[in-house]
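ok here's Splicing factor YJU2, seq below lol
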Amino acid sequence: MSERKAINKYYPPDYNPLEAEKLSRKMAKKLKTMNKSHASIRLMTPFSMRCLECNEYIPKSRKFNGKKELLKEKYLDSIKIYRLTISCPRCANSIAFRTDPGNSDYVMEVGGVRNYVPQKPNDDLNAKTAVESIDETLQRLVREKEMEQNEKMGIKEQADDKMDLLEKRLAKIQQEQEDDEELENLRKKNLEMSQRAEMINRSKHAQQEKAVTTDDLDNLVDQVFDNHRQRTNKPGNNNDEKRTPLFTPTSTKGKIQKKSSVRTNPLGIVIKRGKSLK
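and the structure came out like this:
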């Protein structure tokens, strides 16, 4: 047996260390690039799946020793597509799935089935909340780039002409002015109508107050006259009778006429002597 840790090594007479170093580098490069399309990697499952052979449930983010394979097809002729292959932990069934750059997801190929398949949002129902895919993003970027190039070169469409834009802006400003005038006229009309209604209400209120005051005065005058009429029409009140004077004038001169024996009471009734007031 040879020594496990030999100190003295045999070098042939035609040994060239420079050529040996070049040869070792060449072999290492060849071994490295010999099976570039297939490579053993350590990966985690990107989604939960189920094996079709034994119905084994494989959860998401479980680690596997798998293989990575580069496919010939490419997305948009530039993005590479890979196939990832793992083995079922229960029955060693081969399960393969590949990348889907267009939807930023993975597609199951053979050996298993996904437990949950996300659905795309409907463009008609959820157009605002729809997530923009990579294709749409690339198309939008291409359109924006073309528009920038056209603007730099001075090539614009007829709809984007400066005169058309100016006319549209003037028409919009004119329409806004007309709308403002209409609103102002409506506001003035409403103000006039409210003022007119307020004046009518005031005049009606004043007329009602005037009518109330005149009616009150008429009632007061009627009441005063009624009271006066009742006082004058009481029995025993002879205001119309003429009171006899205390002295009666005579045609004779120098004669003194005697007082008449007539007495009056506080009520104004004439009482003659010899008669008693019953």
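fwiw Helices lie at 17-33, 134-153, 162-232. kinda neat tbh
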